[in-house]
Amino acid sequence: MAHIQQKADPAVRALQVDEVFRFADTAAGFSFLGALLTLGVLADTGDIGRGSVWFVFACGVTLVRIIAVVGYQRRDPRQSVEPWARLIIVANLLAGIQWGLLGTVLFPQEHGYRELFTIMVITCFVGGSLTAYSSIPWAHPALSIPATIPTAIYLFFVQDGSHFYAGATAILFCIAIYYYSVKLTAHMEDRFTLQVAHEDLLRVTGGANERLELENRELSHRAAVRGASMESAREQAERLFAQFLRSPLPMLECDSGGKVISCNPAAERLLGEREREMQGRPLSEHLVSTGHTKVENGAQGYFGSSDASTHEVEILAHGVRIGRCLATFTRFPAHEGMQPGFGVIFAAPPR
């Protein structure tokens, strides 16, 4: 509880709200369709009068959700997302009241299939929306509490007398739904916090990418002027290796098949694995294309007609997408009888 009550970092809060609005339009559509079908059941069981009033209220809830979705899509990205988070909570509270009315005021007095239908609808909508709304604290409890608690109390303590054990079990299940909502919210906030931390690291080192490319060109020029003497080659190798180890930019070296050969400490910190754990594994386990680049022929698909290219990719750490950045791919010189490998340097995402 204390974890979700703390004020979230603005960047983390923006990710939480954006996660909810990824599903908000679909959730609103399913909720309205469910309400429409429920109206059909109420009409089929002779309760069309009260059912029509309930359906009008359901349409109002759907309208609030549509306004929230459209407004969020057209908002100024520079403005705070707090009003949209509060609007989602209010909309879910109204939806919870909507389904709570179905389980109390509109619950049938006669035994029949409508009793089971009512319980099924409330249970499915509350349980099915857990992952869709749990990224914002209190967004899912605003739906689940008014939908389930009044229904449980009415069914087992009001409708036909008190049934303590059945009622206690129903209340326990309602509390369990709330508990898992809180735990999932905390888990998602931790994940978003880690994602923001990695994005900040890449942003701080963003300017170093251009400086590193300039330095690489200067080193190549010096090597061409000095010739191919062994001493000069050794000095250049030592400088490049020192640069590789000490650079704040994450770097990977791969063979022609796209499997990792080595990496520097910055890459170990970014990907959360030691070099020996990454060696021999495909590069695709650590980065994927964002879709702006069409990648064919495995890792070699990142190269066009030149020996160096820069693409936008998403970084994976233990299979989890932790951020988006620019990656520069540089093909190494080919040796006789061997296919050339390549190097990868991660930099900041484009602004």
Automatic annotation (TrEMBL):
<feature type="transmembrane region" description="Helical">
    <location>
        <begin position="163"/>
        <end position="182"/>
    </location>
</feature>
<feature type="domain" description="PAS">
    <location>
        <begin position="237"/>
        <end position="281"/>
    </location>
</feature>
<feature type="transmembrane region" description="Helical">
    <location>
        <begin position="113"/>
        <end position="133"/>
    </location>
</feature>
<feature type="transmembrane region" description="Helical">
    <location>
        <begin position="84"/>
        <end position="107"/>
    </location>
</feature>
<feature type="transmembrane region" description="Helical">
    <location>
        <begin position="20"/>
        <end position="41"/>
    </location>
</feature>
<keyword id="KW-0472">Membrane</keyword>
<keyword id="KW-0812">Transmembrane</keyword>
<keyword id="KW-1133">Transmembrane helix</keyword>
<protein>
    <recommendedName>
        <fullName>PAS domain-containing protein</fullName>
    </recommendedName>
</protein>
<feature type="transmembrane region" description="Helical">
    <location>
        <begin position="53"/>
        <end position="72"/>
    </location>
</feature>
<dbReference type="Pfam" id="PF13188">
    <property type="entry name" value="PAS_8"/>
</dbReference>
<dbReference type="InterPro" id="IPR035965">
    <property type="entry name" value="PAS-like_dom_sf"/>
</dbReference>
<feature type="transmembrane region" description="Helical">
    <location>
        <begin position="138"/>
        <end position="157"/>
    </location>
</feature>
<dbReference type="InterPro" id="IPR000014">
    <property type="entry name" value="PAS"/>
</dbReference>
